[in-house]
Every structure is written in C-alpha cells, then in structure tokens.
C-alpha cells in the first residue's frame, strides 16, 4: 500500500466494531491489573499515577490493535503488503517509536519518583530510570507488538483477498447472466416481429425501430447489479410497446404501481422476464388475448412485485424458461435465500410474485 491507501485502510478499521471491542476489552483488563499493582489509596494520593492507570491501558491496547499492523501493510506501491523482510524491519522501527512514545507519556504522568517503577509494572529492584523502563518495555513489548501486528495484518489481508475474490466472482456471474438475458429478449422479440412482417409491413418497420430502442435500453439498464425500479418500469413499457404492435388490441395492460417506490434499487430485469413469460405463454396463444396486471407494493419492510395474466403461464414451476431461470439466479446472487419467486394459479389466472426483503433507496 501507498501512504494514501494506508491512511484510508486505517480509517476503515477505525470504523469497524470488532477491533474496538477487542481493544476496549483488553484495556479494561489491563486497567484492572494496574489497580492491583498500585493500590487505589496510593493512586488517589498521586493523581498522575491514577491518570496513568486509566489512560495508559487504553493507549497500549489501541497501539497493539490498530497501530501495530500498519507497518506490515506499507509497501510503497500497489501491493497489499511488503516483502516479509521489509515488513519486519518497518514493524521493528515503527513499534519501537510507538513504545518510546508510550513510555514517555507514562513517565511524565507519574511524577513521584517512588511510584515510577511500581506504576509502570516494574519488579522491585529494577532500575526505575527512564532508560531502564524503556529498555524493559522494548525487550518485552517490541517482540509482542511486532508479532501481534503481523498476525492481525495477515488476517485482515486474508479477509480482504477473500472479499475481493467473491466480488470478482459475483461480477463475473452478473456479466454472464446479463449476457444470457439480453440476447434472449432480442431473439424472442425478433420472432414476434417476423410474424408481423407478413401481416402488417408498416407496423413491422415501426416495431424494428422500437426494438432497436428497446435493445439499447436493455444494454444501458443491465450494466450494473442494481437499478431504480423507475428504470425497470420504463424498460417494461418499451417492451410492451414492441409486443403491442404484434398483439394489438388483444393485449390489455393494467398497472398498479406505488410511485413512492420508483427510486428503490433492485436487480435489473426484475419485471421484464415475468411480463415476457405472461405474454408468451398466457396471452399470445389465445385468439382473444388477455389482461396483464403489474403490481408493486410495500410489504413488511420490503416489497412485493406481482405480475398476473389471464390464461396459463410457463408451467407453474420457476426455472422452466431462460428468463425465469435467469431471474432466479440473479435473485439468489443479490439476496441469497431472503428473496422469494413463485408462480401459482389463481382460478383462470396465473400469478408470478417476487418478494424482496429490503428497500434500497437510490441516494
């Protein structure tokens, strides 16, 4: 890491809860030990010793938990860590300076010479001079601080590498799924327009123009793992316009859409596969056509998307078509098992429902 990245990494660790919990627990433990070494009555007579017992355990724990790992991350370039030899040398120098600073602070807090050795945890008979205290702390603390810093640093690096690998895998899966879906939509729409060419060439020409706009919108809409639902609705409206040229008055659409959810972000192509399934398998096969209803509502802190059509949909089993299987895979990728997709029959209607667990508002 370079200095800028190292500073950002340090601030990021400061914002995490777990390191703070560990630091504070050790600080509390060391504070208790400090009061065992120097009785409370003695410390009350010497405020500096009391401040030393309260402040130094926290500073020492903070240094071990947050500062000690830093020299193991500074490589001077884009690598996440330096070579081991360089990291060790950096850690020894850096930690020695930290220990010097800690001993200096403690030395000036405990102004009574008789208390210095006792307050700093030195055994009777140990040289209570600043030099003696510093040497003892370096002999004991420097190896511990260097080793612990390495352990923490390597653990954090391992977590970062694992998260980066998972992120790359997820991105690759998104790209694969998006690449699968866009041609699927295009091919199905072209098949529909091929029928229209023989029946109404003028309408077919307009349909081809609309299809080019639809495909352009598909490419824009699917270039990220989250998109506002307002964009999803606009995409579906384009898709229905293309299909409407083929189906004409046989296609009737009813929207029941909560506009307050327009800026909620969800995986792209959330509605389009359900609408396509309803048209292809529920409405288009019937000479009289049918009614397509699209609903979006809040529910238990999340949202429920419902697409229903007269006639039957594709089987009644998710995953039996490319679009639905693709949607299932993307929902699992985005929400794990928290999102629900199911198809069911309600009398003469087929209903597809997607339940999402949380509302992600676009800022």
TrEMBL record:
SUPFAM superfamilies recorded: ATPase domain of HSP90 chaperone/DNA topoisomerase II/histidine kinase
Keywords for this protein: Kinase, Membrane, Transferase, Transmembrane, Transmembrane helix
InterPro entries according to UniProt: Bact_2-comp_sensor_kinase, HATPase_C_sf, HATPase_dom, Sig_transdc_His_kin_internal
Transmembrane segments: 20-37, 49-67, 88-110, 130-157
Domain spans labelled Histidine kinase/HSP90-like ATPase: 266-360
GO cellular component, one term: membrane
Taxonomic superkingdom: Bacteria
GO molecular function, one term: phosphorelay sensor kinase activity
Entry protein name: Histidine kinase
Organism per entry: Candidatus Geothrix odensensis
Lineage of the organism: Bacteria, Pseudomonadati, Acidobacteriota, Holophagae, Holophagales
């Amino acid at each position: 890491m370079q200095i800028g990245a190292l500073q950002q990494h340090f601030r990021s660790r400061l914002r995490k809860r777990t390191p703070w919990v560990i630091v504070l627990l050790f600080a509390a433990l060391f504070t208790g030990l400090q009061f065992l070494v120097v009785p409370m009555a003695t410390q009350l007579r010497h405020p500096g010793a009391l401040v030393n017992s309260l402040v130094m355990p926290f500073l020492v724990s903070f240094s071990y938990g947050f500062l000690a790992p830093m020299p193991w991350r500074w490589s001077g370039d884009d690598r996440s860590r330096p070579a081991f030899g360089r990291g060790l040398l950096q850690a020894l120098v850096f930690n020695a300076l930290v220990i010097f600073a800690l001993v200096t602070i403690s030395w000036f807090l405990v102004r009574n010479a008789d208390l210095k050795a006792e307050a700093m945890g030195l055994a009777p008979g140990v040289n209570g001079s600043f030099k003696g205290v510093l040497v003892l702390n370096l002999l004991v603390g420097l190896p511990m601080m260097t080793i612990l810093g390495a352990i923490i640093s390597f653990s954090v690096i391992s977590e970062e590498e694992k998260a980066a690998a998972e992120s790359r895998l997820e991105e690759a899966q998104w790209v694969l799924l998006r690449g699968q879906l866009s041609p699927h939509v295009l091919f199905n729409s072209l098949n529909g327009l091929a029928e229209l060419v023989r029946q109404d060439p003028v309408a077919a020409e307009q349909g081809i123009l609309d299809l080019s706009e639809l495909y352009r919108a598909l490419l824009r809409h699917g270039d990220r793992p989250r998109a506002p639902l307002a964009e999803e609705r606009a995409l579906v409206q384009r898709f229905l316009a293309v299909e409407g040229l083929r189906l004409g008055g046989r296609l009737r659409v009813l929207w029941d859409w909560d506009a307050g959810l327009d800026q909620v972000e969800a995986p792209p192509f959330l509605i389009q596969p359900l609408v396509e399934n309803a048209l292809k398998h529920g409405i288009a096969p019937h000479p009289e056509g049918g009614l397509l209803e699209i609903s979006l509502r809040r529910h238990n802190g999340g949202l429920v998307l419902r697409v229903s059509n007269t006639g039957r949909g594709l089987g009644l089993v998710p995953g039996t078509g490319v679009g639905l299987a693709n949607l299932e895979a993307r929902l699992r990728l985005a929400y794990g098992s928290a999102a629900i997709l199911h198809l069911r029959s309600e009398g003469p209607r087929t209903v597809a429902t997607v339940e999402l667990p949380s509302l992600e508002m676009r800022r």
